[in-house]
C-alpha cells in the first residue's frame, strides 16, 4: 500500500492532537485527506500528548482514515508504536534511535524518513537506508519550540545538488504563499503542520498547496 518513494509534488501533512485548536483531530485529518494530501505523519508532542492505549487507539483511527484514501501513514519518533500497529513508515530525528537500527527493525518495505540539517547528515541518512529526508525549518515556525534557526532554502539546495535522487521534504513555516520557493529549490514535497491544521477550510487549504506547485517548478 505505501508508496515507497516520495513522488513530486508531495503535500505531506503532519499533525498531533495539540495542532488542531478546538477542532477534533480526526475531522481535520479527514478533511486534509479529502483535500488530497499525499502523506500523513502522526507527530504527537507537547504537554497534553496522548500516551499508552489512548495514543494507540488514536493512531489506529488515523491509520484507518489514511488507508481509506490510499495515503501512507507515518509515525514520528515512536518506533514501537509504528511496529505495533504496522504503520507504513516512521520518521526519526537526529536525537532518536539510529536510522540504520530503525531500518533493520522495520525491514526494507517500510518508509523511513530522517530529519537532517546538513549534507553530512543527509549522507548518513542515505547510508542508513532512508527513503527521504526532511530539511528545516525553512521559514520561521512557531510550532516546534526547539526548532533550529531557519536554514532557509540553502539546506534543500545543497542536499539536492549532492544527492539529486534523494527525496527532500521541506518543513517549517510553509504556507501556500511561500511553498513555490520550496518547490523551486528542488524539494519533492512540502511538510506542513499549522497552515493546514489551523485552516478555516482544511480541504481548500490543501488544494492551495497543490496549486502552488507549477509544472516544471
Ligand atoms: C516539526 C518541525 N521541524 C522543523 S519545523 C517543524 C514544525 C513545522 O510546523 P509548521 O508547518 O506549523 O511551521
Ligand atoms: C522534524 C521533522 C522534519 N521533517 C519531517 C518530514 F516532513 F516528514 F520530512 N518530519 C518531521 N517530524
Ligand atoms: Mg524526533
List the helices and strands and how they pair.
Elements: E1 10-15, H1 25-35, E2 39-42, H2 52-69, E3 73-76, H3 79-84, E4 89-92, H4 99-106, E5 111-116, H5 119-128, E6 132-135, H6 154-162, E7 168-171, H7 179-184, E8 189-192, H8 194-197, H9 202-211
Parallel strand pairs: 1-2, 1-8, 2-3, 3-4, 4-5, 5-6, 6-7, 7-8
Helix pairs in contact: 1-2, 1-9
Bound molecules: 4-methyl-5-hydroxyethylthiazole phosphate, 2-trifluoromethyl-5-methylene-5H-pyrimidin-4-ylideneamine (IFP) and magnesium ion.
Overview in brief:
This protein is α/β, with parallel strands linked by helices and 217 residues long. The chain is built from nine helices and eight strands. Helix 1 packs parallel to helix 2 (52-69) and helix 1 runs parallel beside helix 9.
Explained architecture:
By secondary structure, the protein is α/β, with parallel strands linked by helices. The protein has nine helices and eight strands. It has helices at 25-35, 52-69, 79-84, 99-106, 119-128, 154-162, 179-184, 194-197, 202-211; strands spanning 10-15, 39-42, 73-76, 89-92, 111-116, 132-135, 168-171, 189-192. It has an eight-stranded parallel beta barrel with strand order 1-2-3-4-5-6-7-8, surrounded by six helices. α1 packs parallel to α2. The two termini are 28 Å apart. The mean pLDDT is 94. The structure holds 4-methyl-5-hydroxyethylthiazole phosphate, 2-trifluoromethyl-5-methylene-5H-pyrimidin-4-ylideneamine (IFP) and magnesium ion.
